[in-house]
């Protein structure tokens, strides 16, 4: 298989994405954000993100490998949108 570099993603690329809350699911048409990007987008720190995940008030991360996790961009966008709507 040809390596396309870090962060590159082609439609149909099927790296096995396992969720820590259940069996692997098909990769939706969404980019995967790593923790620094999630922190920037949400304004939250690492500890707060993981606390909210534990309380089921933040999107669950997806397991990328044994030492890497990420979040679907659409999940983070939906979460941020719901927070804005709740503040109205």
Explained architecture:
The protein is of the alpha+beta class. Helices cover 36% and strands 15% of the residues. A four-stranded antiparallel β-sheet has the order 1-3-4-2. The radius of gyration is 14 Å and the shape is globular. It starts with 17 loop residues before the first strand and ends with a helix.
Chain-wise SSE layout:
Layout: E1 18-19, E2 32-33, H1 35-42, H2 46-54, E3 62-65, E4 68-72, H3 73-87
Antiparallel strand pairs: 1-3, 2-4, 3-4
Q: How many domain units?
A: 1
Percentage of residues assigned to helices: 25-40%
The tally of beta strands, per DSSP, is 4
- The low-pLDDT segments are 1-16
Please identify the structural class as seen in this structure.
alpha+beta
Spatial arrangement of strands, main beta sheet: 1-3-4-2
SSE succession: EEHHEEH
Biggest beta sheet summary: 4 strands, antiparallel
Per the CATH scheme, the topology name is Multidrug-efflux Transporter Regulator, Chain: A, Domain 2
Shape verdict: globular
Number of helices: 3
* Strand residue percentage: 5-15%
Distance from first to last alpha carbon: 49 Å
């Amino acid at each position: 298989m040809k390596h396309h570099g870090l962060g590159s993603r082609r439609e149909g690329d099927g790296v096995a994405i396992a969720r820590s809350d259940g069996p692997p699911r098909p990769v939706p048409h969404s980019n995967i954000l790593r923790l620094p990007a999630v922190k920037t987008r949400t304004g939250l720190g690492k500890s707060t993100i993981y606390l909210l995940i534990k309380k089921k008030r933040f999107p669950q991360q997806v397991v990328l490998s044994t030492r890497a996790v990420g979040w679907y961009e659409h999940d983070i966008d939906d979460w941020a949108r719901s927070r804005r709507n709740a503040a109205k």
